[in-house]
Prior knowledge:
The protein is of the alpha/beta class. It has helices at residues 40-48, 71-76, 94-100, 102-106, 111-117, 123-143, 159-173, 189-202, 242-250, and strands at 2-11, 14-24, 29-33, 54-61, 64-65, 79-82, 89-93, 152-153, 177-181, 208-213, 226-231, 234-239. Helix 3 (94-100) packs across helix 6, helix 6 crosses helix 7 and helix 7 packs parallel to helix 8.
Amino acid sequence: MLKVEDLHVSVADKEIVKGVSFSLEKGKIYAIMGPNGSGKSSLCNALMGNPDYKTAGKIVMDGKEISKMGADERARLGMFMSFQNPEEIEGVGLEGLMRKAPMAEARGVPASHREAMQKPADKREEIRNWALVGGKVKKASEGLRLDAEKRDLNVGFSGGEKKKAEIVQMEILQPKLILLDEIDSGLDVDALKAVAKAINKMRDAERTFLLVTHYSRILKYVKPDSVLIMKEGKIVKKGGPELVREIEKEGYGAI
């Protein structure tokens, strides 16, 4: 699904990620763990194409090099990222955002249908499509106990509500490569279990997850196939779920 070769990431001329290489297979869940400042979030932002993060190296997604692509192009290919600190967007609700999302228009839609979508749609069909998206948003929100209806996206949301809203977007868009940057931060135990359930529900043979976290608590509910440890901008160790137990017992200093 994803192959990264000698990736360097800089922010404001400071190198944060220092030449990492790894591959992510389809159908698997990966966890990246590491102490604060190790470069985990910078790595995710670079993979997603955030223009504030300057990169050197090679990124290949599903056989296609995406190193020079913008974030919107990567999204259309099926990449999704939940942010550590989601932006507040005044005047835009969660449902309205989902109706305009590029992945919802592009992925899995035959070319003939995409062409038709560029033409004025029959009003009744448009209403049906809008209702379908609205129903999906409502169902996903209820499953996470998120009250986002009639609220601007993330405006006045608690930290946990913002993370739930990210998961709702993930469920609606059904991406194939999912980057979750500290999705567990700000969540109480019940919310953590609900988010983990949504992730596990989407797990299949064609979808890949990359979870970034400091702690092991979400990994008790979402079992990773592989674990990568980052320190000081480099991947210093790779292994299986046993690495999580090692960190719990010894801390990052022992790695």
